[in-house]
Give the backbone structure.
Amino acid sequence: QQAIVREAVPAFALVDDGTAAPLPLPYFVKPVKSFFSAGAVAIRADKDRPLIERADLPSSFFDPFTALLRTYSPHNPPPGNTIAESLLSGAQVTLEGFAYRGDAEVLGVVDSVMFPNTIAFRRFEYPSRLPDTVQDRMRVLAVRLMRGLGYAHGLFNVEMMYDHERDAISIIEVNPRMSSQFADLFEKVDGMNTYQILLDLGLGREPRVRRRAGRHAASASCVFRTFEDAWVASVPGIDDVAQVLDRFPDARVEVLAEKQRWLSEQMQDTCSYRYGIVNLGGRDQRDIAGQFRK
């Protein structure tokens, strides 16, 4: 079991001086703990090495995580705030799941769709289009991993990559929490919102899992993103969102941009700027793409 998990983990090393990593090029650099890909950057050639500094976020960003680790874990915080790992290729997915009384279960597999030649997420699609056999292998790996970590109670998500040419699965990262952006993707397809799972776990109840009982055959979380910084003169108001919901009643709209601020002044990844999210359901992903364009 441990050997299977080890084989699925890319080579990695801490970056302790902010300028170099003891890994051969190319490699990926990111904060040891982050969200929304903040600070993540790919180092593909020597000319890219100065970009490593982008992954070294202010120490105050890590203080809450360090305090939690010291208070609730027997482990010491890592000596550095930045980690490098070998660059992976293939189809990226997220497995959302939960643990109850020491046993883990995967709820579903969500595909990550990137903007071409970037690490910026364009949308997230559910259910995954990967072959069922590959998804089953990922589920087995995720369950073994969470059991091996001793994760006994709570929601989790595990990001993985599938390399079709090598028929290989690699673990990107593990998050001991739910992905709030995906909560209603499962509701649209399965009729089960992961906030329901969270509530059951918080009350000590065994979650009731539903499959394919939702209103839609497919769902997606579509990201509004630009690759150029911009000044936010105005943002959609309540009435604007209401107009969207009149047309798409079960859509979820989240406005991320803040009025009278530059997009770069908000938490972003290292190559682009998010300013909104819309979650939609439909017959299939083509149907959803048509709704998003409207």
User: Anything to note?
Assistant: Helices lie at 2-7, 59-72, 132-148, 183-190, 194-202, 238-247, 285-293. The chain has a mean pLDDT of 88. The first strand starts at residue 12 and ends at 15.
